[in-house]
UniProtKB/TrEMBL annotation, chain A:
Its EC number is 7.6.2.1. GO terms for cellular component: plasma membrane. Belongs to the cation transport ATPase (P-type) (TC 3.A.3) family. Type IV subfamily. Keywords: ATP-binding, Magnesium, Membrane, Metal-binding, Nucleotide-binding, Translocase, Transmembrane, Transmembrane helix. CDD domains: P-type_ATPase_APLT_Dnf-like. The lineage of its organism: Eukaryota, Viridiplantae, Streptophyta, Embryophyta, Tracheophyta. It comes from Zingiber officinale. This is Phospholipid-transporting ATPase.
From TrEMBL, chain B:
This is ALA-interacting subunit. It is found in: Membrane. Belongs to the CDC50/LEM3 family. Keywords: Membrane, Transmembrane, Transmembrane helix. InterPro entries: CDC50/LEM3_fam (IPR005045). Residues 1-26 are annotated as: Disordered. Residues 1-10 have a biased composition (Polar residues). The chain crosses the membrane at residues 45-67, 305-327. One of its GO terms (cellular component) is plasma membrane.
Length: 1186, 347
């Protein structure tokens, strides 16, 4: 969930989000971070007033007290004294190491990593078996070759990646930092990698922070520093950090020798980037340190001339390094299915081996008398004279050996090369997805990212999409739309489309013009009301309303230069997009926040600069669901401004207020949220001196208390936030992202169910549902929002009854909904809220919910917590086989993204946590459509075909070997040379399947986008299932029979030698399987031609080379046999006879039972013929090229 | 091809100012829009493929059948006939004995004119020259060069003599060299058998060394077959070279020699066979074959029949597909066949 307001309406969600499952203990935004950080770390956070006014007393209190931080478990850093901080060199230097291996450890570690795959162990076992002299079927080198090849390819890939990491590490480690030299007191240049804990560093504007450091001083007199954390969490807004006043006054350096500097105690390194806990002892005083006092490695200093800080965590202990975890590892559905077929193949393998072993035993038994003398067996060894057996140890052992040997010979039944091919193909597919211009987001300048490399093909089988709302469906760019002041609705700005430029309030400050960076369309009537000095009640309230918007926030205005030197822009930097929107709105109406310093803000109120002292600030928290400030205006009145969610605000209003005004406001609020606007209510109260002093003392007490400070502060806030006058309410639009309704419609047609899980209110969720065409008027809405298990059960039962009722009308909507082939059914939408889900998930009602939810076309869950999001995903995942995809952008989506089969992060406005947890990341929601319908479909069909083809290809070969073994007295002789056997799957036939797996497209992008229904072929497992596997295997058996027996019968009773016949068989099978592939290729690129025909050529060359080695028995055989006509006739006969069934069945099936994809292919082709478009020329061009 | 990161670390130069657009460069390759040919199995293609194959295969089949039919072949199984009547019960003893006369003669009639050269083969059946123990039992290095004389790896149990000196050529294959001999005569006039150039030239030139002479050969406790003349280098021992090209299948022929003159039809040829080779211990069969050759090799009708079968099957399939396309016409690429158009509520 993105960018909901710092202090604004999305209260329930905030509460839930604290329970985020994210790997980082805290979640995406600032206030959440604070609330989740411990109370002790709160002091002095972005509350300049508090720093200024209260720090003295606060620190005195703290100095004499024990912190919650236990000394035993803390790190002690002597400022400016690395030797004292780390006398035994226990903490790492500031060098980082993202590389996994060093040149020495590379080999063992990399091998260890690789052998964690079970299949590699299998292949290793076979290689080892083959080393036993009794079983040596292949030469030792030849048998180890395939495994060595696979290991080598992977190792080279790993080594290259690691080398790149080494290189970037080196660059990073050798950057220059300026470090204080304790002797001279000057800052000297030092390499990053040499920085140690305790050293004092100086960082200049726009420099990167070399390590995690506690701020000691900044160029700003109040101790503020601005940092950009885009590399850390992706947020581009500037964050404010503070140096403590105690150290501000005398920054370490030339004037202040370091020996008098203090000691910092802080927590041990951890990965919480939003938490820090520590204290600093300066001059005998203890000052507490929180997350606002630390700047982290990976950030950049902005808008601050310099900062001085002391390194507390370095190198691998920095928070950014502790957080850099690799991509999650998931297994694709296809690969899981593939394992089932691999088991089947293993069964076939064992069967073949058993047949060979048993026949071998029988043959030995039948010939036991003959073999003593038979020249080709020679059981008895006469050479030594004594009567011993030569290499023979009884039938039982021979049978056992025969079994093991046949396992070695037939091992490639389980295709080892498939694993490496799949990796290469996925790499290629990822390359094309990343390079796809259609998946590039202009606005955030982000490409598609493939973070997980092994689930590309899952994208083609998605059945459920779980989407976050804010920032995913919407842009998370808040725009102020309308205001309700004293119950009067001012939504003229929203209605009128004209952009009245006058309203942009321009200030003449000296010679310069200041202008807010963004302007909001204003309501003319409201503008008139504000400009009218006449003191009507309405005008007064309107002014107070906008004053409240301008000051009740934590926005930092920054003045930015423009190309026009006379004009400057005010850029509001804040952590909540809602607050920014409100500040810009206030500016457009003439209440421009110009400056914020630690104790006051300056607001230009309709042309007059006014100073407001900020006396206190109560941050947003999820209990109160509001925030408030106490300001002292120019007229010395003290006002409390509160803004918060409607239900929290209406509870604390003044009772004797005009009820009709409240009702009108409520009506307006309802209207706004029905429009999909995010609402919040603004109230104020004037505090008397007495009240203020009471509050001040309570506030100070709370602030300096040691235990449960957060709770006390909340109590103080609640105490003062009462009897408010309601000033009005605002409506902020969270704009839908471009193309969202179209994307949802496409996905619906593609048979993908889109569920929206949001933290928003029910009304907002429903209205967004309508605006993105998820919900339509024709749908029956089932709303479940209950407060007890009982009522939830009733509601669910009602819902079940409802769809049963529809079931009477139409045959079976439930079944239909599941199979996606419904008839005339009433579409239903389920809207359920988080509180109900608490009673449903993980109870018996889950089953009911599942039934109802799957029967509905649309499911909208509102006010759900991150854990519940994950719960809903697993509700589907655990009960169906359907693939789930979760898409979100915020920290609260992390759990959902990790739970779903495919997790997609939106790399947009909010932090990077969703992206870090995701498998794929992209800039826009609408990219889901090309991603799933085009790339997903392609990847699925390519990978499915590749797996089947690899199984088939190796099976043909194994069966040919098997048939031959039947004519060698079952002794596992191979006619095909051992080198060819080994090279078969890694050289002779590998490249074409990889090329086809990367490049082949069954349908064009245009067609796939035009007919989203084609996506369903993936959902139906059309390209890879047991039936296809069986058919392919039958084809493999036939082709092996044709390949083996045609030459066998033709060469029976001839002088042919084993090598020549072996050469014929290997050539025949390689050509056959490549032609088989060729008939299945959808699109012939020049690369495909090169790969397929090149591979056949390469095979011929390899066979020739092998037959040119005089130490092999087959020397010169290929030249001899190629000189005979019989060879060529056999080759041609094998290919035609082998292909005949495949070709006929394919032609028959495509004609009689065309799949949707087949028809779409024909449409592709025929449109081309009829329309004679560009494509024809393209094809001609390609023909010429080829 | 690292899919995620080709971002180079930004240098602190002036380039940092303007953030580089990461928009992928357009190219037909990266957008997967390379020109391509999209073949489709249209009825025309299917039918013409079948007809083409049929038209190609049937003549080839006929040609190879006739070629095979023109080959004249005389096959004579002599392993039983050449055992005297009294030894029929114990053939093994007969063949193993060094005292028995193993010469046997027979005559046969030439059925048709046989054009020179007439190839003389011996054919063994049930002899597993491709048996795993057997095929491995040789050492090609030793065969090739005198320098490798001591190289007897894989040759067991015929590697060395009991005193350890190497057997050249070592191994079971050489040891079991076929040693029946044939001589032919017609009306008491001897027919010359040319035993030159029966082995592959490549074997003689490169595989079997001209400086390698047989040594310690066939001197063990068990005689496997022929002895070799120790004064002739291996490269000249063509019978051995032929024998060492191990056959692919348990029933095989090996070239014995050639008769360089035509044999007229009805010519009576008498053959004198020295029946030395022991196939009796494992129920092997021995045949003598005289055959002419053609472009397709020896007499084997299989390929012709196979080609005729495939060809006519293809013609049949072509007809079947024509009938199918006529009976069940379907417009290719008609959207109304799409599953969601066939049952419109289907989503």
């Amino acid at each position: 969930m993105a960018g909901d307001g710092l202090t604004i309406s999305r209260e329930e969600e905030e509460e839930e989000e604290e329970r985020s499952l994210a790997p980082l203990p805290s979640s995406g935004r600032h206030h959440r971070r604070k609330s989740s950080a411990s109370a002790a770390s709160r002091d002095g956070f972005p509350n300049p007033a508090h720093v200024r006014h209260l720090s003295r007393t606060e620190t005195e209190r703290l100095a004499s007290s024990q912190r919650e931080l236990a000394d035993s478990n803390s790190r002690i850093v002597f400022i400016g004294d690395p030797g004292g901080s780390d006398p035994r060199f226990e903490t790492p230097r500031n060098s980082i190491r993202t590389a996994k291996y060093s040149p020495i450890t590379f080999l063992p570690r990399n091998l260890f990593e690789q052998f964690r795959r079970l299949s590699y162990i299998y292949f290793l076992a076979i290689v080892i078996l083959n080393q036993l002299p009794q079983l040596a079927v292949f030469g030792r080198g030849a048998s180890a070759l395939p495994l060595a090849f696979v290991l080598l390819v992977t190792a080279v890939k790993d080594a290259y990646e690691d080398w790149r990491r080494h290189r970037s590490d080196r660059i990073e480690n050798n950057r220059a930092a300026s470090v204080l030299d304790p002797q001279s007191g000057r800052f000297l240049s030092k390499r990053w990698k040499e920085v140690r804990v305790g050293e004092v560093l100086k960082v200049l504007a726009n420099e990167s922070i070399p390590c995690d450091m506690v701020l000691l001083a900044t160029s700003d007199p109040t101790g503020v520093a601005y940092i950009q954390t885009i590399n850390l969490d992706g947020e581009s807004n500037l964050k404010t950090r503070y140096a403590k006043q105690e150290t501000m006054s005398r920054p370490p350096g030339e004037d202040h020798p370091v020996d008098s500097a203090g000691v910092i105690r802080c927590e041990q390194p951890n990965r919480n980037i939003y938490g820090f806990l520590g204290n600093m002892e300066v001059d005998g005083k203890r000052v507490s340190l929180g997350p606002a006092n630390i700047i982290l490695r990976g950030c950049e200093l902005k808008n601050t001339a310099w900062v001085i800080g002391v390194a507390v965590y370095t190198g691998s202990e920095t928070k950014v390094m502790l957080n850099s975890s690799g991509a999650p590892s998931k297994r694709s559905r296809l690969e899981t299915r593939m394992n089932r077929e691999t088991l089947l193949l293993s069964a076939i393998l064992i069967a073949l081996c058993s047949v060979v072993a048993i026949c071998n035993g029988i043959w030995l038994g039948n010939h036991s008398d003959d073999l003593e003398l038979a020249q080709f067996f020679r059981k008895r060894d006469y050479s030594d004279g004594d009567d011993k057996k030569y290499n023979y140890s009884g039938i039982g052992t021979q049978v056992f050996f025969a079994f093991l040997m046949s396992v070695i010979v037939f091992q490639i039944m389980i295709p080892i090369s498939l694993y490496i091919s799949m990796e290469l193909v996925r790499l290629g597919q990822a390359y094309f997805m990343v390079r796809d211009a259609n998946l590039y987001d202009e606005s955030s300048n982000s490409r598609f990212q493939c973070r997980a490399l092994n689930i590309n093909e899952d994208l083609g089988q998605i059945k459920y999409v779980f989407s976050d709302k804010t920032g995913t469906l919407t842009e998370n760019k808040m725009e102020f739309q309308c205001a309700s002041i004293r119950g009067v609705d001012y939504s003229g700005g929203r209605v009128s489309s004209r952009d009245n430029g006058e309203a942009h309030y321009i200030l003449a400050a000296g010679k310069q013009i200041l202008k807010p960076k963004m302007s909001v369309k204003t309501d003319p009537e409201l503008v008139r009301l504000l400009k009218n000095k006449g003191d009507t009640e309405q005008g007064k309230r309107a002014r107070e309303f906008f004053l409240a918007l301008a000051c009740c926030n934590t926005i930092v205005p920054l003045v930015v230069d423009t190309s026009d030197p006379k004009q400057k822009l005010i850029d509001y930097q804040g952590e909540s997009p809602d607050e920014q929107a409100l500040a810009y709105a206030a500016a457009s109406y003439g209440f421009v926040l110009i400056e914020r310093t630690s104790g006051h803000i300056i607001i230009d109120v309709l042309g007059n600069r006014q100073r407001y002292d900020v006396l206190g600030l109560h941050e947003f928290d999820s209990d109160r669901k509001r925030m408030s400030v106490i300001v002292c205006g120019p007229d010395k009145t003290i006002n409390l401004f509160v803004k918060g969610a409607d239900n929290s605000m209406f509870g604390i209003i003044q009772n004797k207020v005009d009820l009709s005004m409240i009702d009108a406001t409520k009506a307006n609020l309802h209207a706004y949220s029905s429009l999909g606007l995010r609402t919040l209510v603004v109230g104020m109260r004037e505090l008397s001196r007495k009240e203020f002093e009471e509050w001040q003392s309570a506030y100070e007490n709370a602030n300096t208390s040691l235990m449960g400070r957060g709770k006390l502060l909340r109590a103080v806030a609640s105490n003062v936030e009462r009897e408010l006058h309601i000033l009005g309410a605002s409506g902020i639009e969270d704009k839908l992202q471009e193309g969202v309704p179209e994307a949802i419609e496409s996905m619906r047609q593609a048979g993908i169910k889109v569920w929206v899980l949001t933290g928003d209110k029910q009304e907002t969720a429903i209205s967004i549902g309508f605006s993105c065409k998820l919900l339509t008027e024709a749908m029956t809405q089932i709303v479940i929002n209950c407060n007890s298990e009982e009522s939830c059960r009733n509601k669910l039962q009602d819902a079940v009854a409802m769809y049963r009722k529809f079931a009477v009308i139409s045959p079976d909507p439930f079944e239909n909904a599941l199979t996606g082939t419904g008839s005339t059914k009433v579409s239903m939408a389920l809207i359920i809220d988080g509180i109900s889900l608490v009673y449903i998930l993980k109870t018996k009602l889950e089953e009911e919910l599942f039934k109802v939810a799957t029967a509905c076309d649309v499911v909208l869950c509102c006010r759900v917590a991150p854990l519940q999001k994950a719960g809903i995903v697993s509700l589907i995942k655990s009960r169906t086989d359907d693939m789930t995809l979760a898409i979100g952008d915020g920290a609260n989506d992390v759990s959902m993204i990790q739970t779903a089969d495919v997790g997609i992060g939106i790399s947009g406005q909010e932090g990077r946590q969703a992206v870090m947890a995701s498998d794929f990341a992209m800039g826009q929601f609408r990219f889901l459509v090309p991603l799933l319908l085009v790339h997903g479909h392609w990847n699925y069909q390519r990978m499915a075909y590749m797996i089947l083809y690899n199984f088939y290809r190796n099976a043909v070969f194994v069966f040919i070997l098997f048939w031959y073994v039947l004519y060698t007295a079952y002794t596992l002789t191979t006619a095909i040379t051992e080198w060819s056997t080994v090279l078969y799957s890694i050289v002779y036939t590998a490249l074409p399947t990889i090329v086809v797996g990367v490049l082949d497209k069954d349908l064009s992008r245009k067609t796939l986008m035009k007919y989203p229904q084609l996506y369903r072929s993936g959902q139906r497992d059309e390209r890879y299932n047991l039936k296809l596997f069986t058919l392919t295997m039958m084809d493999a058996v036939w082709q092996s029979v044709a390949t083996f027996y045609i030459p066998y019968l033709a060469y029976r009773q001839s002088t042919v030698d084993v090598s020549s016949l072996g050469d014929l068989w290997i050539l025949a099978v390689v050509i056959l399987v490549n032609i088989h592939l060729a008939t299945d290729v959808f699109r012939w690129y020049w690369i495909t031609h090169v790969a397929v025909w090149g591979c056949i050529g390469a095979t011929l060359i390899c066979v020739i080379i092998i037959d040119c080695i005089w130490t092999l028995p087959g020397y010169w055989a290929i030249f001899k046999i190629m000189g005979t006509g019989l060879f060529w006739l056999c080759l041609l006969g094998v290919i035609v006879a082998g292909m005949l069934p495949h070709f006929s069945v394919k032609a028959l099936k495509e004609y009689l039972m065309p799949s949707d994809i087949q028809i779409a292919r024909e449409m592709d082709k025929f449109r081309r013929i009829n329309a004679a478009t560009m494509e024809i020329q393209m094809n001609r061009f390609s023909m010429l090229q080829l | 091809m690292n899919p995620t990161g080709d971002s180079t670390p930004e240098t602190d130069g002036a380039t940092e100012r303007r953030k580089k657009s990461k928009k992928p460069n357009y190219s037909r390759f990266t957008q997967q829009e390379l020109p391509a040919c999209k073949p489709l199995l249209t009825p025309t293609i299917v039918i013409s493929t079948f007809i083409l194959i049929g038209v190609l295969f049937i003549p080839i089949g006929l040609a190879s059948l006739s070629a095979s039919g023109n080959v004249v072949e005389i096959v004579y199984r002599y392993d039983i006939d050449c055992i005297p009547q009294q030894s029929q019960d114990d053939k093994l003893a007969f063949i193993q004995s060094s005292l028995t006369n193993k010469t046997c003669t027979t005559t046969f009639n030439v059925p048709k004119n046989m054009k020179a050269p007439v190839h003389i083969y011996y054919e063994l059946d049930n002899f597993y020259q491709n048996h795993r123990r057997y095929v491995k039992s040789r050492n090609d290095k030793q065969l090739r060069s005198k320098a490798y004389e001591l190289e007897t790896t894989n040759c067991a149990p015929e590697a060395t003599t009991p005193d350890g000196s190497p057997i050249v050529p070592c191994g079971l294959i050489a040891w079991s060299l076929f040693n029946d001999t044939y001589s032919f005569a017609t009306q008491s006039k001897v027919i010359e058998v040319n035993k030159k150039n029966i082995a592959w030239q490549s074997d003689k030139d490169h595989k079997f060394g001209s400086d390698v002479y047989p040594k310690n050969f066939q001197q063990g406790g068990l005689i496997g077959g022929a002895k070799l003349n120790e004064s002739i280098p291996l490269s000249e021992q063509e019978d051995l070279i032929v024998w060492m090209r191990t056959a692919a299948l348990p029933q095989f022929r090996k070239l014995y020699g050639r008769i360089e003159r035509d044999l007229a039809a009805n010519e009576q040829i008498s053959v004198t066979i020295e029946n030395n080779y022991n196939t009796y211990s494992f129920e092997g069969e021995k045949r003598l074959v005289l055959s002419t050759t053609s472009w397709i090799g020896g007499k084997n009708g299989f390929l012709g029949v196979a080609y005729l079968t495939i060809g006519s099957l293809c013609i049949f399939l072509a007809v079947a597909f024509i009938v199918l396309y006529l009976l069940k016409p379907r417009t290719l690429g008609d959207p109304s066949y799409l599953s969601w158009n066939r049952n419109p509520d289907g989503h």
